[in-house]
Amino acid sequence: MSEELVLHNLNREVKDPLLRKKVTPTWELGCKRTLVTSDWYTALQKPNVELITNRIREVKAHSIVTYDGDEYPVDIIIWSTGFETQKFGIPVYGKNGCSLVEQWSKTMAAYRGVTIPNYPNLFLLLGPNSRLGHSSVIVMLEAQLKYLVEIFVYMNENSVRSVAIKQNAHDKYNQWLQSKLKKTVWNLGGCHSWYQNFQGDVTTIWPDFTWIYRSLLKRFDSENYIIEK
Fold first, then answer.
1. Of 6, 25, 27, 33, which is closest to residue 135 (Cα–Cα)?
2. Which of 71, 107, 112, 194 has the smallest number of CB atoms closer than 10 Å to its CB?
3. Is residue 20 situated within a structural domain?
């Protein structure tokens, strides 16, 4: 898929120049999650549809007011505000009472998207930087589950009580991740998306081929973990 092809299809499908301008992204293709649909442009051009792109200033009992002062009467409002991707949904406390919410207050990070320093025996699926915008997430889940099984087998066979990723291994891995992500469209594409945190760092998406991720999780690298029996 290329921007030229997408823009060609847009120009062909949407004849009204004002509407076309409204639906033309100002960022590079792929910076935000790509919408794949065959009837989006058709739906927007129906006589009972009006696309308003001005920011909402106020929601009243029976209307919406935009920042340009226009007011639109409404019967139903459907909120499509996206996802909360930068916080953990439940309170979790690790060693010495540290809170995961506090640890992730500036940026969320995990080792290979699975384990977090100071949180022994806490294992994630589709954790930070292991989700995808360009391939099948099933591949990532399978790799993570295989990795976790390796951990559990190791713990069982060696009478291990807990495992926790070492801070230096975690930090080195995430420095490598961010160095790769800095070169991607998710960082350089000119948009702010749910892939990013408030500082603009991409904390959700895996930046490379899925087979590289699978190779990283092929075995349990116990040397990078604090092992307690």
1. 33
2. 71
3. yes
Number of Cβ within 10 Å of residue 163's Cβ equals: 21
Which is nearest to 131 in space by CA: 113, 106, 109?
113
Residues paired with residue 164 on neighbouring β-strands, in sequence order: 226
- Say how many domains are in the chain: 2
- The CATH number that applies at residue 203 is 3.50.50.60
Q: Is residue 99 part of a domain?
A: yes
* pLDDT tens digit sequence for 186-200: 999 999 888 998 888
pLDDT at 1 over 70: no
Q: How many other CB atoms are there within 10 angstroms of residue 187's CB atom?
A: 19
Tokens of 66: 């935009």
pTM above 0.70, yes or no: yes
Residue 130 lies in a domain: yes
Angle at the Cα of 169 from the Cα atoms of 138 and 116, rounded to 5 degrees: 55
Question: Is residue 62 located within the same domain as residue 119?
Answer: no
Q: Which of 3-7, 70-74, 106-110 has the lowest mean pLDDT?
A: 3-7
pLDDT for position 85: 81
Domain enclosing residue 61, as ranges: 3-73
Same domain, 47 and 152: no
Render pLDDT for 155-208 as a digit per residue (tens, 0 to 9): 999 999 999 999 999 999 999 999 999 999 999 999 988 899 888 899 999 999
Listed residues 16, 42, 73: the one ending a domain: 73
